Amino acid sequence: MSPTAGGSTVKQQPKQQPKPRQKKGDAQEKHSSQSRIQPAKAKAQPPQPQQQSTKLSKKSESKKRKRGEEAVITSLRQLPQADGDDGASVPAMDDEERELADLVFGGEVEGAVSKVLDGFDLATFERRLPEKHAKDDDDDDGNDDALGFSIDTAGIAQDETDLAIPTETDALASARVISGRAVSSALQDAPAAWTDDGDEQVKVNIRDKKRLRKLRKDFDEKAISGTDYELRLRAQYERMFPTPKWAEIPEEKQTASKRRAVGADSDDGGNEDDDQDDEDNEAVNDQRVITSATDPNAGDLGHSELLRLLRTTQPIVDSHRRRVLSADKLDIVRVKDANQLAYAQAVIQSAQFHPRAPVLLTCGFDKTLRLFQIDGKINPKITSIYIKDMPIFRAHFTPDGRQIIMTGRRKWFYVHDLETGQTNKIWGIRGRDEKSYELSIVSPCNRFIAFMCRNGYISLVSLQTKQWVADLKMNGLVTAVAFSKSGKHLYSFGSDGEVYQWDTATRQCLHRFHDEGCVKATALAVSDDEQYIATGTAAGVVNVYLTKTALKSSNPKPAKTFMNLTTPISELLFHPDSQLLVMASKNVKDALRIVHLPSLRVVQNWPTGATPLGYVSTVAFSSGGGGYLAIGNAKGKVLLYKLTAYNA
What we know:
By secondary structure, this protein is α+β, with helices and mostly antiparallel strands. A 4-stranded antiparallel sheet has the order 5-32-31-30, with no helix packed on it. It has a 4-stranded antiparallel sheet with strand order 6-7-8-9, with no helix packed on it. Strands 10-11-12-13 form a 4-stranded antiparallel sheet, with no helix packed on it. β22 (521-526) and β23 form a beta hairpin.
């Protein structure tokens, strides 16, 4: 009660206290408790209107789907049922329709098309055509267009005089397509059976992708069309895998020989071969004239070439004749790495090809020797041999190809038999107290193993019995040795700068000469024909001597001195045909050069600055033709290159 202005009092209403807000969690808990207490009441709640509409729409959709399925099934049941054999529902064809069906689809028996063409009479068909349209009350005048197709009569009837008899040149041109080398020229001359217009619109980037950079004709070239890309890939494949000699046609062999003769270097060493080639070509031409004159049928279907092949021994002589390489350009292509399926875990210390099979061995300080089958594409791995107590420094195939000699910095060495798969341990050389047998070489005559020992000794061990045979003593320390191809002579290079020639039969020193300008000897090599002797020093100097000159004087003058490398020479290797010499140093990256021996010049076009050689540790040529060059480096890889001038 409070007094007012008039003295009356007004009764105040009590203030209502606000209801406390209920928390969301408390409301949910209360709702859940009520639902647990009164489950029957929750079930009795009527459904919401939105839920009812959703259920009705689902029911209507299911009913419509069922009605559609029933309509399809009813329509399928109303279709006429065709019997399996008689085909009564299919209308029968008349003679013309049956004839047309046989012509288009070939009929039901073999040769139906030929029968229809043989029995086709154009005059009768044209005479019957208006009659058929008259029966059908057609307004057309009976032209061939009413059938929906036209008949081309050109070439149906042709006189025999118009048929051209294929000449010998045509027969050779058609047969040349079989040769892989002539496929690209034949495809370029003849029109394509089918072309894709999209090839010209496709652009291929050959500069950004490393694998495609070799297809560039210009350094700045970036993108080419799809057609040009296809032609360059085809040319690259033919360059890597040329046509074998047995697949070449005789005319192509003559063309190839002339092309090689034009590209060959005109030095003194090749004049005799060029003169002999001219004489042989003249003899072949004379033989061809005699053959065509005596045999009247020799001009048909290339019979003259067959007769010439049977009447002369030129192909046999040419196959064994030594070809002279060009001094300006070495045609070499890189293929897949020889050990791409199993790279070594250490520096490749030794790599060598099998003397009779396309097999390559690799070894290193990871104590594992690996064998690979070389094909230039996959190079599958054959097997691997783990030597747990000796890091492998050198490994050699024996000349007969049956054993592998493995040596290292130990007092023993190992012999692996390829036929039985057994590996035997040889406990050093009896009578020699050596701490290491790492420096070794096997004679090509399959008789000796030469070990470079201490104090200038060279120990010869029998390859059959693995027992000591003899010791050869030279002045100074032994740094390098090399056998001649026949195995009769052994050459050694010492720290005093002298080269020794030994007779392996009598164990006597036949001759020795001083290497000009030698500071410290590091490498020695002898060509297979024994015409050249190459020496390498620590200053990177390589001297090439003519054997006939070096063995006549104690201070001979080298035929050529190469100073392209500036670090110690670690590898010297001659090609099997004695036209190339590889020199390399493992101290500097990409330190490898190839010498063209007939001209005594270094090859200029390879290796280039972009050739990924790395630190070269060993090199090897394939046996036989010498078509492969294997280069081992410090990354555990064996790079494989193919010399296209030789057979792989």
